[in-house]
Amino acid sequence: MKLRILGLLCLVFALGSLVVACGDSDSSDGDKSGDTTTAVKLKNPVDIDVGLDKPVTVGPEVKIALFSASGTDWLTALNSSTEDAAKAAGYEITTFDSALDPTKQLNQMENALQSGEYNVWMVQPFDSQLLCDITSKQAPAKNIAVISISNPVCDRALKPAGDDLWQPGTMAVVNGENSVTYKAAWLKEIFNRLTADGGDKKVIMLTGPKEIGNTQTFEGGLQQVTDEGDADGIDVVASVRSDFTTPTSLTMMEDALQANPDVDAVISVYSDMTRGAIAALTSAGMDDVKVYDMGASKYSVDQIKAGKMEMTVPYAPAESGTASVELLTDVLGGDQPKRFVDVFEPDNSVRDPLFIDSENADSYQPTY
Each residue of 102-116: pLDDT tens digit? Predict the structure, then answer.
């Protein structure tokens, strides 16, 4: 899959070559570190349709707040790509690190709203419902254009991929891996492979906290596949809720494996958790248990090559960050905003994932 940067390069020449610095914040009071310079100005303010009676007016300065976190390879790739793309386009951007704490993220947004400093928010929401009002009502009332990255805001996580994931009041949702549609396609393929010999299979599911969009879409995808009859022969013997980190996943998987020594497969929604699962399986001498994963990180692909993992599908953190800035650039240039951006297009889509296994792992180039 290709990073789509041509639009950004064009904007650099169109608006000038001034590049701005990006600050960081890891506190809920919105304090920032790092130098910043004045961002490139538009000639005139731009009205942006956010699906309400009144448009959001942005400009002439464009100042982006990226509400995200740190601590995982996925988040590092998302933050870096968003920051780099924004700098290349001539926008000022400040990143707020919530430390994966939804309440802290909300506090950061409330402070940013009160400050009036930013007119574009790019949000990786860690509790979609908690952030619903501030992103879709309070922000547009203050002329802030909101792009939701990876997870939708409000109660739309379980909607099928497409415009239904977009929340009126926001500009768009840039989505891919965190959709029910993508996870259902992934699970259906796994179940087909596991039951190809006609036998029933015992499975441990390794996922995250229930309030996180990734977990919600995984469970929605599992329910969809089950309702459609594509989970026949699959017995989920344990559902392990980790916190997306390797150490916690290792400890929790050790307990799950002790309780289920006859398990046939482990299915993990994120590569850092998969590390813990594979370590637990190795320690228990259970190398015959099949492992399936989401992410297609360098680690995951290496595990497939080493014969320790059966299959993975890509996550697209870098593509999501770049696509979010590209979308903003297009809209500020006069285009109507796309409500849903599928980050896997044009090579694949959320409905037609790229399955990476021993047949094509050597040719796949991880993006993080």
Answer: 999 999 999 999 999
How many distinct structural domains can be found in the chain?
2
165 and 181 Cβ atoms separated by less than 8 Å: no
261: exposed, middle or buried (Cβ count in 10 Å: 0-12, 13-18, 19+): exposed
The CATH number covering residue 311 comes to 3.40.50.2300
What digits encode the pLDDT tens for the residues 301-319?
999 999 999 999 999 999 9
Cβ proximity of 250 and 240 under 8 Å = no
**4: CB partners within 8 A, 6+ apart:** 319, 322, 323, 326
Q: Are residues 288 and 187 in the same domain?
A: yes
Question: Is the distance from CB of 106 to CB of 132 less than 8 angstroms?
Answer: no
Distance CA 253, CA 256 (A): 5
CA distance 337 to 327: 7
Beta-carbon count within 10 A of 172 CB: 27
- At 2, list the tokens: 């290709």
CB atoms within 10 A of CB 37: 10
- 285: Cβ–Cβ under 8 A, 6 or more apart, which residues? none
User: In this structure, is residue 345 part of a structural domain?
Assistant: no
Instruction: Tell me the backbone φ, ψ of residue 28, rounded to 5 degrees.
Output: -75, -10
Q: How far apart are CA 360 and CA 356, in angstroms?
A: 6
Q: Which amino acid is at 124?
A: Q
95 CB neighbour count, 10 Å cutoff = 24
Distance CA 169, CA 179 (A): 20
Residues 93 and 202 in one domain: no
User: What is residue 267's three-state secondary structure?
Assistant: strand
Show the tokens assigned to 147: 């792009």
CA atoms of 201 and 58, how far apart (whole Å): 54
